[in-house]
Amino acid sequence: NVLYNLYKVGILKVIFPELTLLERVGAEPQRFHHLNGLDHSFEALRCLERILLLKSPIWQDISEKLTFYLNHIIGGGRKNIQLLKLATLLHDVGKPITMKFDSNKISYLNHDHEGAIIVEKIARRMRLSKSEIKELKHLVKNHMQPIFIPIENPEAHILKFLSKTYPYTVNITLLSLADRLSSRGQKITLSYILERYRLYKKIIKTALYYEPPKRLPLNGKEIMNLLNLEPGPAVGIALKMLKGAMIRGEVKDEEDAKAFLLEKFNNLKIKK
């Protein structure tokens, strides 16, 4: 209500001009969104607030751990929960510049990636810390990803998602859940919402109990020798691939790590 009132008197346009552009993104009740882009953003934040009350029995077994996570200080003296709310409000700011009309349908291809670029500019304007900017970008860039995790046999997909998004997985999933709950077009059914709710809880629980590897089996120098690499971005890519493989359980020791990188990295067209 406060944000809506700020919008009505024109103050929100001064603070977040990129957000108020979403009023141009029309509702599509026959598909997913029953509200225009700006009202959807407000509604997503309302849904998030209701989720974070943790009143639903579905959160009972992880409520304490989730509350601890949400109250964790990121940077600048602010908490995870505060950055999550900001990301939820701004999650669709990439839509106005990616909106395209085709065969009576509207698409917003890559609005998540464009949105991440925009929120970085907003965050710098707000003078957020480097760690806050990094997380905010990750939340907006990846808020669509949980949608693609299947309901049936999701375990391997959850681990893959975790390998790409940890340590931001919990906040990304909560943002995505709020986004789903605030979309009530004709293609969004009650059974779909219930299935997603249960799945997203499973993702969040997996992330909350996940313990990242204390160290990788290979360091940067060892990877350079193994793959005949010069110092540069390629080494970082290899390290990131190795970390993801460990999270997914594909790599357990040094021997696994070498075999994985020799097979997977050399198949990539990366300038060495």
From TrEMBL:
- Return the SMART domains for the record: HDc
Q: Where is the HD/PDEase domain?
A: 33-193
A Pfam family cross-referenced in the UniProt record is HD
Q: Give the top-rank taxon of the lineage listed in the UniProt record for this protein.
A: Bacteria
| GO MF terms, alphabetically ordered | nucleotide binding
* UniProt KW keywords: Nucleotide-binding
Keyword Nucleotide-binding in the entry? The reply is yes
The identity of this protein, by name, is: HD domain-containing protein
Species of origin reads Thermodesulfobium narugense
Organism taxonomic ancestry: Bacteria, Pseudomonadati, Thermodesulfobiota, Thermodesulfobiia, Thermodesulfobiales
